């Protein structure tokens, strides 16, 4: 079983609010392998849970750590990292 970890900075100007959190959580859910996301020393949350993702309170520039377990973990984290670093609030 492959485990991958990645630390990325939040790109959305207004942080991980409803829209970017929904996009991220849906992508994590669709992946079919367990993914967690954590901010700082806080307990990791299920990345497929929109409420869990929003509860992190991640703002633009905050670093979060993603962890995925399973086949294709590295590729999945590439896609999820891109979603987190993109500014979904840009006009």
Taken in chain order, the helices and strands follow as EHEEHEH
CATH topology: Histidine-containing Protein, Chain: A
For the record, what CATH class applies?
A: Alpha Beta
CATH homology superfamily: HPr-like
Summarize the amount of helix as a percent range: 25-40%
Large-scale geometry: globular
Order of strands in the sheet with the most strands?
Answer: 1-4-2-3
The domain count comes to 1
Q: Biggest β-sheet, characterized?
A: 4 strands, antiparallel
Mean pLDDT across residues: 94
- How large is the share of residues in beta strands? 15-25%
Query: Can you count the beta strands?
Result: 4
Return the structural class.
Answer: alpha+beta
Keywords: Cytoplasm, Phosphotransferase system
Subcellular location: Cytoplasm
Domain HPr: 3-91
Protein name: HPr family phosphocarrier protein
Overview of this protein structure:
The structure is a single chain. The chain is of the alpha+beta class. It has one domain (3-85): HPr-like (Histidine-containing Protein, Chain: A), CATH 3.30.1340. The chain contains 3 helices and 4 strands, in the order E-H-E-E-H-E-H. Strands 1-4-2-3 form a 4-stranded antiparallel sheet, with helices on one face. It starts with a strand and ends in a 6-residue tail after the last helix.
């Amino acid at each position: 079983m492959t485990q991958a970890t990645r630390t990325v900075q939040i790109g959305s100007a207004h942080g991980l609010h409803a829209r970017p959190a929904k996009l991220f959580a849906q992508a994590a859910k669709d992946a079919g392998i367990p993914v967690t996301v954590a901010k700082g020393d806080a307990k990791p949350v299920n990345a497929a849970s929109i409420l869990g993702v929003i509860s992190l309170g991640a703002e633009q520039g905050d670093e979060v750590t993603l962890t995925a377990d399973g086949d294709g973990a590295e590729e999945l984290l590439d896609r999820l990292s891109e979603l987190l670093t993109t500014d979904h609030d840009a006009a």
